[in-house]
Request: fold
Amino acid sequence: MLTIDLARLLTELETYAWAFLRVTGFMLLAPTFGAALVPRRIKLTFALALTLILAPLSPRTDPIDPISATALLTAAQQLLIGVAIAFVVQVVFDALVLAGQVVATTMGLGFATLIDPNRGASTAVVGQFYLILGTLLFLSLDAHLALLGVLADSVRVLPPGPATLGPDAFLALARWGGKIFEAGTLIALPAVVGLVLVNLALGIVSRAAPQLNLFAVGFPISMLLGFAMLMLSLPALRGSLERLFLEALDTAGRLVGTH
Reply:
């Protein structure tokens, strides 16, 4: 006769439910995985598959009453952990968008914008170019697999219960958020410095020859030299992005206590 241990079944379902909430928080902000271009059915299927894989990694804890304040706090905890892990890497992509905006404005392409479907806002074409390069490099370095590894480690190290992100983790997240401006400035710096020198030279020419139509001459020169600066800065961009991705993964690991 087939017997079902109802208590054990409920415990197993609870474990998978908490894991699914953490994966859901991760999918909200994770680059590539949580892109708006990815159909919702694929996101849901991937989230369920991740849940089936990661839930068994969670250590056994005391059951939590699903109809209680503790369950509500635990659910918020799981979502927050998943969002925090994804946010750390998403900052790198936001820095690329910022760098592209700065370069585009300096070279006179600030008006050339596209609607970014992932953000639902206008983004400079140069920012889209940087974003595509960053996504391709992110995938080629297998950083997406390393990010999933951090998520798996978080399930093992931070099971549902009293263990959660502490004040130090939130402080680290706030500091890492400032990386958008720091990294964006460093990525845009080579092209911006070159374009500033070009603008200084054009200013000197306009003073020496006031009759020259600076707008008609300077605009195409700034644009052409801007594209040249972009091409020359691409080799350095790869090294900068590799360091940023490694630093982001290390920060995510330290947030959940695996590094």
